[in-house]
Amino acid sequence: MKMNKLFILTLLFSLTLSAADTYWTKIEDKNGLKLFSGPKSDTGIYPFKAIFTVKHELEDVVMVLADTSQKTQWVPRMSKSETLEQKSADNRVEYGVVNMPWPLKDRDAIVRILTTVDETRTHVRLNIQSDMDEQIMNKNNIRAKVYPSLVDIYYLPETKETLMEIETFVDPKGAIPKWIVNFFQKIEAKRMARQMKRQLDKNLYSKEQLAEVARVLKELSLKN
C-alpha cells in the first residue's frame, strides 16, 4: 500500500512537471531554488513560480502558511496580516499590507484561500486569489489584484522533506512601470523562499499545535 501511494505521488508530480514545461520557463536554478516565469499577461506582468524543498514535515509547513499573525516575519515587505473570516478549516479570508518604498503608496489585498488535501495526505494545495475588493480597509493604500495563484505542498516520505511549489501572479496596480514590477517580483519570489525556510527553522510550534494540524488535514482529506 505504501509503495502504491508513493507511485501515485511520483506519477502526479511527474505529470505536473510535464504540463508545466509548456507554460513555465526556467530563469534560475541556484542554491536549491528553481525559479520560473510564465508568459507575459495582458496586464504586462509575468507570473512567477518558485520550487524548493525544506527539511521539515508537511504539518510544519502548513502551520507556517496558516499562521496569519506571523506572516510579517517572512513574507517580503508585509507589514500587516490578519484573518478577516474563517468560514471553515478549508476556506478563509486574509488581509495583508505590503510596504512600498517612498514615494509609492503601500499596497493591500484581501484574498480568499481555499485548501484541499489529497486522500494520502501527502499533497496539500492552497488556491489563492483576490476577494471582497469592494471592502476598503485603508483609503490611503492602493488595492492590489491577486490573480489565481497556487501553493502546492508535497511531502516526500522517502527523504522526510517537503517540496514547495509557489505560483504567484500579482498586479500591484497604480502607475508603477510594468518592467519594474516584474523585476522586483522576481527578486521577492526568491526572498520569500529564503525567508520561509528561516521561519520554519525557528520551530515555533508545539507538538500539540502540529498534532491539531495533522487532525485537520486528515479531516479535509476525507472530503475529497
Short description:
The chain has 224 residues and is α+β, with helices and mostly antiparallel strands. It contains 4 helices and 12 strands.
Describe it.
About 3% of the residues have low confidence. This protein has 4 helices and 12 strands; from the N terminus they run αβββαβββββββββαα. Helix 2 packs across helix 4. Strands 1, 2, 3, 4, 5, 6, 7, 8, 10 and 11 form a 10-stranded mixed β-sheet that branches. A hairpin with a 5-residue loop joins strand 6 and strand 7. The chain is of the alpha+beta class. It is globular, with a radius of gyration of 18 Å. It has a single domain, classed as START domain (Alpha-D-Glucose-1,6-Bisphosphate, Chain A, domain 4).
Structural class category: alpha+beta
Strand content: 25-35%
Order of helices and strands: HEEEHEEEEEEEEEHH
Distance between the termini: 19 Å
CATH fold assignment: Alpha-D-Glucose-1,6-Bisphosphate, Chain A, domain 4
Give the biggest sheet.
10 strands, mixed
Query: Can you count the helices?
Result: 4
**Which value, in Å, is the CA radius of gyration?**
18 Å
What is the topological layout?
Elements: H1 2-21, E1 25-30, E2 33-37, E3 48-54, H2 58-66, E4 78-88, E5 91-98, E6 107-117, E7 123-130, E8 142-143, E9 145-146, E10 149-156, E11 161-168, E12 170-171, H3 178-201, H4 207-221
Parallel strand pairs: 6-8
Antiparallel strand pairs: 1-2, 2-3, 3-11, 4-5, 5-6, 6-7, 7-10, 9-12, 10-11
Features:
224 residues; 12 strands; alpha+beta; two-stranded antiparallel ribbon; Alpha-D-Glucose-1,6-Bisphosphate, Chain A, domain 4
